Amino acid sequence: GPVHPGSAVDFERISAHLLSRLHLLRRWRQRLAFVPQSGSAVWVDDDAFDLDHHLRHVALPSPGDDDTLAEFVGRVLTLRIERSRPLWELWVVEGLSGNRFALILKVHHAMTDGMAGLGMLDALLQADPSPTIIAAAAEPIIPMRHRDARRSLSTSKDESDRGASRPGPRSGTI
Predict the structure, then answer these.
(1) How far apart, in whole angstroms, are the C-alpha atoms of residue 174 and residue 165?
(2) Rounded distance, CA 130 to CA 155, Å?
(3) Burial bucket for residue 169 (CB in 10 Å: 0-12, 13-18, 19+)
(4) Active site residue ranges
(5) pTM for this predicted structure
(6) 37: which residues sit within 8 A by CB, 6+ positions away?
C-alpha cells in the first residue's frame, strides 16, 4: 500500500512492477567495468544489483505545484549517477497538487540513444492496462565478471554474444 499517509501512490506496487520488468532491460542490471591495461569500458552484469540504489521515493513540500516540481527535477538532474552501479535512477515523486505524482527517469547517455530509450520505456511502461505483474524470466541471470569481460574482448569481435559490449550507442568517453 501507500507509504505516506493519504498518499495515492502505491510505491510497493511500482517497485514490484519494476522488478518484474528488469529481465527485459538487461542494460539496467549492468554496470561499467574497465579492462586492465587498455582501460576499455565494457558492460558487465552487476552481481550486487540492488533496486534500492536506483528507485527513489520522495514527497514534495506543500503546495506541490508545478514550479516546485520543476525545481526538484532540476536538482535531481544535477546529481551525478553513481558510476560503480548501473547508470540509471527512477524517482517517484508524490505530493503534487491535485493528488498527482510524477516519475523522473534519469538514464546516463552511455546507456541509450533516442530510439533505444523508447524501447526501454516501452518495456518498462507496458501499455497493457491489466494490473497483472509479469513474472520474471525463469532463466537466471549469470553475472559476467571482470576477467570474463577481459577474455571476451581479447577473443571475440562480437562481444554482445557474451554479455559484454562497449558502452553507449557510440563508443566514447563517459
Answers:
(1) 15
(2) 45
(3) middle
(4) 109
(5) 0.70
(6) none
Task: Report CA-CA distances (Å) from 132 to 4, 21, 55, 126, 136.
Answer: 24, 12, 21, 11, 12
Helices (H) and strands (E) in the chain, counts: 4, 5
Q: What is the length of the chain?
A: 174
Q: What digits encode the pLDDT tens for the residues 3-32?
A: 455 667 899 999 998 998 888 888 999 999
> Residue 23 corresponds to which cell in the numbers above?
529481465
CA atoms within 13 A on the CB side of 151: 8
Q: Is 109 helix (H, G, I), strand (E, B) or coil?
A: coil
Contact partners, residue 153, CB within 8 Å, separation at least 6: 35, 38, 40, 42, 159, 164
What is the C-alpha separation between 91 and 79, in angstroms, rounded?
12
> The sheet that has 55-59: what strands, in order across it?
55-59, 88-96, 100-107
CA-closest candidate to residue 101, choices 57, 132, 67? 57
Q: Which of left, alpha, beta for 14 (phi over 0: left; psi -120 to 50: alpha)?
A: alpha
Secondary structure (3-state) at 68: helix
| β-strands 88-96, 41-45 pairing | unpaired
